[in-house]
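ERR on first pass: missing label on line 2. Operator R.T. fixed the label and resubmitted. Corrected input:
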Amino acid sequence: MSAFRALIVRDLRLAFRAGGEAMTLVLFFVMVGVIVPFAIGPDRPQLTRLAPGIVWIAAFLSMLLGLDRLFRSDDEDGSLGLLQHSVLPLEAVVAAKVIAHWLVTALPLLVATPVLALLLSMSWEQWWRTVLALAIGTPALTSFGAIGAAVTVGLRRGGLIAPVLILPLAIPVMIFGVGTMDQMAGGGATLFLIALSLVVTAFSPFAAALALRTAGE
Amino acid sequence: MNQPERFPPVFAPPNVTVRGLGVSRGERVLFADLSFEVQAGGVLLLRGPNGVGKSTLLMTLAGIVRPDAGEIEGIGREDVHLLTYQSGLKGRLSVSENLQFWRDMNGATGTQLDEALERVGIGGLAGLEAGYLSSGQLRRLALARLLVSARPVWLLDEPSAALDAAGERLLGALIDAHRGAGGIAIVATHHDLLLAEARGVETIVLGGPA
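pass 2 clean. output:
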């Protein structure tokens, strides 16, 4: 097996065997959808109007929650140091880990959107746009998150610092993500979201690898 | 015990040269102007009291810690096996999954999986989750990682920690075989290694009377 694939497979295996952790994020995502109607009141048109914002807030928070797992356990057991001597450059190691992390933390959210759509009384059209927006936007969130996680990996209690660090970076993702879900807006927001996601995804392995190298010293 | 072992000669004879190396951690200078050379087939033992910088020197040689001064020649990024108390093994993965992963990551240039597990004496445990292993068995699994990918330079930090008497003999035999294939081992240890051949073994005592 190629080293790149081996790393993805290992991370997926670990995530499935740890079981609960990935499920926690999905549960959190759905929970936000459950409590919002109670907080706002069962006014269906209003819920429908607010749905895009609520979905993005839920996705955003649950992805931030999972960030800490990206590099921490590998740092603690020494894997990260050993991976620096692997046949893969550290940038590729980060890329593989980001892909695995996206599959574990973001893909389940996409799968769970029908539940949220039901709770927030979305139309078919709106649900479909939600899936589209999340599919385009979450890679950007994961990539920003990788940079934050790499910068804070050396800090023992860095768990909450990474989200605070990347919050300002991730806000454009949120703005254009919500824009993508808005039927009234044209395709401009979608294109912006795609561009943003592509740029960040391509750029983040280099930034994160740089941070990891510095953290090792 | 020390029957000759097959190691495919996949690496060129290494030659590690260190000149004028200076390393500090934070404000503390650990050593300055350290020089040594290790030829192919050689073993370098690092001795000295706790906290004197043996592990840091190994990390520096591995390229993880940046030195303040000096140069290190002959150790490329993909030439090194680093063995520290942090084994890089996952308790949730089985013994063979752990080993296969490192074989994939470091290149399948060494022995086969089963062969390596047999060699380090945990051949019967391949399917067991690594989390159930004792610390001595974990250490043996970590040693198996050095066998499945052939690399010229072994940097070992207290390799005999948690090993029983048979394990220490095994460690000595593995290093002997590695030397026989032309490899280099740089070992930080408080114990004596059980090597068959004392020639070519040099010792550096760090932190002499300052």
